[in-house]
Amino acid sequence: MTCTPAIDAIASARRLVSFSGAGLSAPSGVATFRDTAQGHWAKHDPMDLASPVGFARDPELVMTWYAMRRREMAAATPNAGHRALAAHPTMVHITQNTDDLLERAGATNVLHLHGTINAERCHGRCGWRSPIDLADPPGVQSCPGCGHHPSRPDVVWFGESLPQDIWTAAVDAIEQSDVLVVVGTSAVVHPAAGLIALARDHGASVIVVNTDASAADGLADHVLTGSADTLLPTLFPH
Ligand code: APR
């Protein structure tokens, strides 16, 4: 498989955007959701662990699961894929990932569509939000800001809306992009995955980087099969 056409498209791009999922962080030891038997959703029902209903039913189970994921992320370091993306000075990074590995690799323009796991916020949206130590994650606690609601990870659960400001910025970036690099996502969760078709509708070239087939492939100009940490440094030589 040759990457040359994709490399040429990236080299001549004027407005590059990346759209990433759990596969970008997988080489850093962060578990994915649905692509392998080790994925989170292969072992758990997402509605039990990543939804307001599941949190109301068993907050202890949810916070214990997030504590495990937070400790996993505390031990993770950015991989060569994060560094290759972060090294591009003007690229906008739209990610479904809640880890901060792109930022720790030096990326500055990161839009977290599904929130950030390294912070807690008030479940009742009183306005309280605080960064947390991933290595020492909180358990079930009342919101320190209002005391009326529990605090919970500052991530977007199934059935919750994406942060409107982040979504608007992501749509703007996509509509102005001329090359979209889709990395490590099954592209099955909407509205996030709809950004790929939106890029295409606005004339962008779509390059997919994935170890396996994904729902993005039908929208791609180039499908590169391989791991993000080995392919991205080839696509973004610097
Ligand atoms: N390099 C590139 N791609 C990889 C790698 C790798 N090393 N390892 C796995 N992948 C690919 C898999 O083939 C799969 O297509 O990453 C994708 C992971 O898919 P999912 O587990 O579905 O993760 P993601 O697409 O990020 O899920 C989207 O679903 O549960 C929600 O909120 C959660 O943001 C998440 C959303």
Describe this structure in words.
This protein is α/β, with parallel strands linked by helices and 238 residues long. It has two domains: 1-30 and 80-114 and 162-238, Rossmann fold; 32-75 and 121-155, SIR2/SIRT2 'Small Domain', CATH 3.30.1600.10. 34% of the residues lie in helices and 18% in strands. The chain is built from eleven helices and nine strands. The protein has helices at 4-11, 22-25, 40-43, 46-49, 52-57, 59-74, 80-86, 101-104, 164-176, 194-201, 228-235; strands at residues 16-20, 92-95, 110-112, 115-122, 129-131, 151-155, 179-183, 205-210, 222-225. Strands 3-2-1-7-8-9 form a six-stranded parallel sheet, with helices on both faces. Strands 5-4-6 form a three-stranded antiparallel sheet, with helices on one face. A hairpin with a 6-residue loop joins strand 4 (115-122) and strand 5. Helix 7 (80-86) packs parallel to helix 11 and helix 9 runs parallel beside helix 10 (194-201). The longest helix has 16 residues, at 59-74. It is globular, with a radius of gyration of 18 Å. It starts with a helix and ends with a helix. 45% of the residues are buried. Bound molecules: adenosine-5-diphosphoribose.
